[in-house]
Structure formats: C-alpha cells, structure tokens
Amino acid sequence: KQEVTQIPAALSVPEGENLVLNCSFTDSAIYNLQWFRQDPGKGLTSLLLIQSSQREQTSGRLNASLDKSSGRSTLYIAASQPGDSATYLCAVSSGGGADGLTFGKGTHLIIQP
Amino acid sequence: NAGVTQTPKFQVLKTGQSMTLQCAQDMNHEYMSWYRQDPGMGLRLIHYSVGAGITDQGEVPNGYNVSRSTTEDFPLRLLSAAPSQTSVYFCASKRGLTYLNTEAFFGQGTRLTVV
C-alpha cells in the first residue's frame, strides 16, 4: 500500500527566506505527483503537477522536484511571503482502477512578517 | 469557469439521519471522486467514478453510497449518519483514465458534523 510522508509537519520562518518542504513515498511506481496548498477552512488549490517522467516543474517562486527512484519530492519556495502561510499537501497518483490520490498529512507553514 | 462546486458548505446532522452531499463540475471531466479529511489522517478516498454510470469503492466506502447519472454530477449519500462520519468532505475531478497524467481539481469542501 502506498504511503506518503511529509517532513516537517510544521515550519515557521521569517519572511524572505527560501525554504524546502519534503515529501517521500514508499512505492516508486507512480504516474504523477501533485503539490497542493490548503488555507484554513478552504479547499485544495493545485500548485504543481509533476509527471512520472519529469524531474521538476516550476511556477513563479515555486519549484518542485521529483526523484521517482528514491521516492522523494521537494517543494522549494523562494523569497517566502506572509501570504505563503498555509498547509502544503503532497499527493501521488499510482494509477490502477481507482487512480485515486494518496496524500501526505501536510506541512503547516507559517511565514512571520 | 466554476470548476468543482460542492453544496452545502456546512451541515449538522443527527445520528441516524440521511443526507446527500452535492458535487458538480463544468470541465467535462470523466473522473470524479470523493475524499474525507480528518485531523491526523490526511485525505482518504471514499468512492470514485470513471464516467457516467460507473462507480467503485475507494479506501473508506462504508456508510456511503454514490451514483453517477451524468458527467457533471457525482453526489455522495450518507445513508444513516454516525458521529464517526464527522469530517470535511472534498469532491475532486480530473480528465479520464485515458489521460492518466492529469491534474486533479478540488471543490471547497463540505464540513459535516454528526451529533
């Protein structure tokens, strides 16, 4: 059974710092990996989708990398801002009939002004 | 473009009551699914559908029914609500399994409390 782990569970940093969020998964046979952002009491907003054949994806100040063979992904946030404060979720799609997403428990990020 | 729309946003039920959580998408996506989010557990798949008329169970299906009569709608029914079903429910959609590497879009969630 696929398991996804996110480290750290919580992170608090001053504004302006560059930071890295980590995601690991136990079964490397994935189709893609998606990073989401969730604000308190809100839904999930997709940030980046990395196909299994890709090594990284970039969107603005965000860069996500994927090392499928080692079961790891990182989300790099450059020049962090208070508006980046949220919970960041990593999810992998392992295909198959269900093709559902297996989620990590998230990293709760606070950017201090 | 509305994306994925869930109603209601909040609901309080008494134990034993039934209700339907609504989900609609306007992106012509074949694949739709329901998740529940519980503290310390992450999101878990309840049911999914790969197209109109086709549904199947996910990881935690007990106590829930689904149907998919149209491409746009995928309602989730609680047959007899229990306190263990207190959770936040999310509906998601994406292009079908013939497009495996596609982005999933989520609704804003329904916060359900069963007393």
List key phrases describing it.
heterodimer, A: 113 residues, mainly beta, B: 115 residues, seven-stranded mixed β-sheet, four-stranded antiparallel β-sheet
Can you offer a commentary on this structure?
The complex is a heterodimer of chains A (113) and B (115). With 113 residues, chain A is mostly beta strands. Helix content of chain A is 0%, strand content 57%. In chain A, strand 6 (56-59) and strand 7 form a beta hairpin. Helix content of chain B is 0%, strand content 50%. Chain B has no helices and eleven strands. The radius of gyration of chain B is 13 Å and the shape is globular. The chains are: A mainly beta (113), B mainly beta (115). The A-B interface holds A 4, 31-32, 34, 36, 41-46, 49, 51-52, 89, 91, 93, 95, 97-101, 103-106 and B 31, 33, 35, 40-45, 48, 50, 56, 58-59, 90, 92, 97, 100-109, 111.
Describe how the helices and strands are arranged.
The complex is a heterodimer of chains A (113) and B (115).
Chain A: E1 4-7, E2 10-14, E3 19-25, E4 32-38, E5 44-51, E6 56-59, E7 62-67, E8 72-77, E9 86-93, E10 101-103, E11 107-112
Parallel strand pairs in A: 2-11
Antiparallel strand pairs in A: 1-3, 3-8, 4-5, 4-9, 6-7, 7-8, 9-10, 9-11
Chain B: E1 4-7, E2 10-13, E3 19-25, E4 31-38, E5 42-51, E6 54-57, E7 64-66, E8 76-78, E9 87-94, E10 105-106, E11 110-114
Parallel strand pairs in B: 2-11
Antiparallel strand pairs in B: 1-3, 3-8, 4-5, 4-9, 5-6, 7-8, 9-10, 9-11
